[in-house]
Amino acid sequence: MWGVNKGEYILFECKSGTEESRAEIHQSEAEQLLNSTRWFEEKYTDCVVKPVIVINPKLMARGAFLPENGEILDVEGLSKLKNRIRSFYMEFSNFALGQIPDLTIQEWIKSHDLELDGIKQLFKKPVYRK
Fold first, then answer.
1. Going by DSSP bridges, is the β-strand pair 2-5/8-14 parallel, antiparallel, or unpaired?
2. Total-model pTM
3. In the list 25, 61, 77, 78, which could disulfide-bond 122, CB 3.0-4.6 Å?
4. Number of domains forming the structure of the chain
């Protein structure tokens, strides 16, 4: 779970055991994200959540459905996100943490495309099987 704004979160369900070449997201994997989303909505009734499954396939198996606003972070998107975060953290290497102005950190977040819109661009809408 990643807090991106006050009362707004991205909920990641990571499926690290899947092969990159697999074609479909299984029903059980989609249900795990749905269950996690329901848990979040019960516990954080005054917040908004964006459910994201971290998995390479973009095709949903028959009977598999993500939550209404659920999306996919595939291997390519995950790699981009990791590189952005690493580059962001490298900015801190020459400074003592207490000496970095908040405005500077915000500029680094923007320059490494880690603002909410930049992160959301990495997600893909699921492709459903007919």
1. antiparallel
2. 0.86
3. 77
4. 1
| Segments forming the whole domain that contains residue 60 | 2-128
Per the listing, tokens 């959540």 go with 49
CA 82 to chain centre: 11
Query: Measured at the alpha carbon of residue 83, what is the angle toward residues 77 and 87, in degrees to the nearest 5?
Result: 145
Residue 107, both tokens: 């500029």
| Long-range contacts of residues 82-88, Cβ cutoff 8 Å, at least 24 apart | 84/112, 84/113, 84/114, 84/118, 85/112, 85/114, 87/112, 88/112, 88/114
Are 114 and 85 contacting, i.e. CB atoms less than 8 angstroms apart? yes
- Residues, the chain, total? 130
